Amino acid sequence: MTESDTYDILSETILAVLIGSGPILALALGVGLVIAFFQALTQIQEMTLTFVPKIAAIFLGLLAATPFIYATLTKLSDRVFDLIASGGA
């Protein structure tokens, strides 16, 4: 296994993590912005108002995005296991 092969595996791993976590992070960011605008407009500064909707949205987003995350990680692990089986790693 050469240095370029190692670099390729590491870059694919980082990309898979970013792609897998991207939808959930974007959802949390969007919900956080909506709540921040709501708090700014109504001047309600309740701390639990930020956590409860964000946690609920992240939970629902995880339920919806689980097949996508699973497919992304399965593709990466299949590639790595194929490299191990072929003696490339």
Report on this structure.
By secondary structure, the protein is mainly alpha-helical. Helix content is 88%, strand content 0%. The protein has one domain (3-85). Helix 1 (3-42) runs antiparallel to helix 2 (48-85). The chain is elongated. It starts with a helix and ends with a helix.
Helix content: over 70%
Number of domains: 1
Number of strands: 0
Coarse shape: elongated
Give the terminus-to-terminus CA distance. Answer: 6 Å
Mean pLDDT score: 91
Strand and helix order: HH
Q: Largest beta sheet, briefly?
A: none
Structural class: mainly alpha
Bin the strand percentage: under 5%
**What's the number of helices?**
2
Radius of gyration, rounded?
19 Å
The parts where pLDDT drops under 50 for at least 5 residues are none
Subcellular location: Cell membrane
Family: Belongs to the FliQ/MopD/SpaQ family.
InterPro entries: Bac_export_3
Pfam families: Bac_export_3 (PF01313)
